[in-house]
# Entry
Amino acid sequence: MKWLYTYFRPYKARIALELFIKTIATLMDLCIPWILGHIIDVVIPTRSAWLIVFWGALMIICSVVCVAGNISANRLASSIARDTTKTVRHDLFAKIMSLSSRRTDSFTAASLVSRITDDTYNLNNMTGRLLRLGIRAPILLLGGMAITLSMDAPLALVWIAVLPLVIGIFIAVSVHGVPLFSRLQASVDAMVQVIRENITGVRVIKALSRTEYETRRFSKINDEVSANEEKANVSMGLTNPAINMLLNIALSTVIFVGAYRVNGGKTGVGTIVAFTSYFAVILNAVLGITRIFVTMSRAAASAKRVGEVLYDKADLPIIETDELCQDFICFKNVSFSYNKRENDLSDIRFSLNRGETLGIIGPTGSGKTTLINLLMRFYDPDKGEIFIDGRDVRSLDYGELRRKFGVVFQNDILFADSVRNNIDFGRGLSEADIALALRCAQAEDFVNKLPHGLDSVLNPKGNDLSGGQKQRLLIARALAAKPEILVLDDSSSALDYSTDAALRQALRANFFGSVITIAQRVSSVRDMDRIIFLDNGVIKGFGSHEELMASCDMYRETAELQMGREENAAE
# Structure
């Protein structure tokens, strides 16, 4: 939790003011029982109405200062907790966005969602409670004991005798509680994962009538979360009754011993009344400290999880290298494995000149998308080097590297926003650029037919559009910024043949950068300057369509099979 202190530094002045106000209000709270005892034992026997009014007014003033101070301090505490959590959540989101794909896979999306929501809420709860009770509870506890010790030492020793037992309970609960809450948060991650999968695949679940099965699967993880939460809360919940029992035993002892001392004339009735009032003060203080320990136990587990992401070391650092390549895009002996046991790509070697187009084709799972992930440096290769515009991609700043690309991935997403904003994507593009991109992507006609044209708001993930319409908007987004390299990863699978052909013709006429197309259909890549045929992560053929038809048996078989199908479809 040490990292959290750096987020408190900008609010040092507000924290100091809150603690000062809270301290004054707490001291006023401590004075009230003492004044009450003084009135009973000292003021009332004098039968002086003026003194009774004076000390009574003083009690009222202390009460007003106490209430007003606590309200002001609590408002400050809430604002500090709010602002601190907002900053932590912002930095955590920014860090998540900067994580490499490998680290995102390692944390899992469900866990990252849980950390930025549930865990930051726990930190907010801890910060607010610590500021509200962190100074008040100790002052009430220690101040109450000090005052009672000065009023009647023998009676005060009863509180002091109980204190070591109370501290022992705190320590035991804290040591036992943090692992339980860590386990709870891990099960929450698993539940979020199940929820995300079910919401994303709800149509498949309904279509296959697997609702009951998925409900049972959710019930299982939900029961696990409930069991972990119950175990953690029961363990932490034992604190209150245990401490209540100790303090009530202490109170009974105080009243029993106090009765003998009053009877023997060694103490006054007002002192006993003040002691019982201070008992309530000390009890509330101890319970406040208990709540702090419970909250901190939960927050400690959350702080560890948040800190793991915030201070995760970059596994794809910028590496300065003098090695250059004359080609625009170049792969030199590149091998890569996700699991570090079997290669997903092996000894990939090819080059592409500026403006040339590249088609990548091959069976499912052959490594086509992985090749693009390496080119864009979502991962680093295990062996070999990759160059863009003559420079090693590892030496390029991430912003500079990514600005070179316009990309449409297989399962890309449209946001719940207007068509215009989905294409612009916060890049400040001109109307002319957006219009040209729509026209080139064959999306202009259907966008103009939408109720509000470019200003029409789409449903989340573009669920109100057909598959082909979504793909055309995604292609328009990729084209709009006029990138140097356009990557289309199976992005025309939902397009009919005539639209696909018109798209490829428009790209040749309007886009002058390099186009890399990943496709399942030979017809989508046959006009490319270069074609790679991948199989099991190995390049089986590289060249033009005509060259591969002559030199690569696997490509020729695929082309003859597919083109036969396409001819039948055309007929």
